[in-house]
Amino acid sequence: MNYYLKKSIYTLILSLLVVIVINIISNNVFLRWDLTAEKRYTLTPATKKLLSNLKQNVEVEVYLEGKDLPAGMKRLKKETRELLQEFRSYSNGKITYKFIDVNAIKKDKEKKIEALVQKGVKPINLEVNTNSGFVEN
């Protein structure tokens, strides 16, 4: 084979291996740089210590799912997911979470909503601007 062809194949294989290794490392290590002046996205050392010393698994249910969420709620959902991912990273996987769409619950929806209210979750009505006007959820 041509020298340049061998070199190109070697470079391609090496590049693919580097990308695969970086991908594996990035899936197992959580890294975030907080460039805000007030360190808004930085966990305090006490929070990190609490998360790393969890003795039991913690499951978090986030009722912030749906196809017609307004932009502000989508941003809140994204930020919540990122925070929970960071919590899971510092807790060594002891924190799990799932996002739930309350409107998609078919069976015993009213009972589940009432149970959430009993636990202190306060429901809010969202006004969503659609093509046909405002819709309240």
Question: Keyphrases for this structure?
Answer:
two-stranded antiparallel ribbon, 137 residues, 47% helix, alpha+beta, 13% strand, extended, 4 helices
Write the layout of secondary structure elements.
Elements: H1 3-28, H2 45-52, E1 58-62, H3 71-90, E2 95-99, H4 109-118, E3 127-130, E4 133-136
The structural domain count equals 2
Structural class: alpha+beta
- SS summary, helix count: 4
The parts where pLDDT drops under 50 for at least 5 residues are: none
Sheet bearing the most strands, described? 2 strands, parallel
Strand order of the largest sheet: 1-2
Summarize the amount of helix as a percent range: 40-55%
Average pLDDT: 85
Task: Indicate the overall shape.
Answer: extended
Taking all Cα atoms into account, the compactness measure Rg is 22 Å
The span between the termini is 67 Å
Query: Can you count the beta strands?
Result: 4
Q: Order of helices and strands, N to C?
A: HHEHEHEE
* Beta-strand content: 5-15%
Short description:
The chain is an alpha+beta fold. It folds into two domains: 31 residues; 105 residues, no CATH class. The protein has four helices and four strands.
Question: Can you give a write-up of this model?
Answer:
With 137 residues, this protein is of the alpha+beta class. The protein has two domains: 1-31; 32-136, no CATH class. 47% of the residues lie in helices and 13% in strands. The strands form two sheets. It has a two-stranded parallel sheet. A hairpin with a 2-residue loop joins strand 3 and strand 4. It is extended, with a radius of gyration of 22 Å. The protein starts with a helix and ends with a strand. The model has no long low-confidence stretch (mean pLDDT 85).
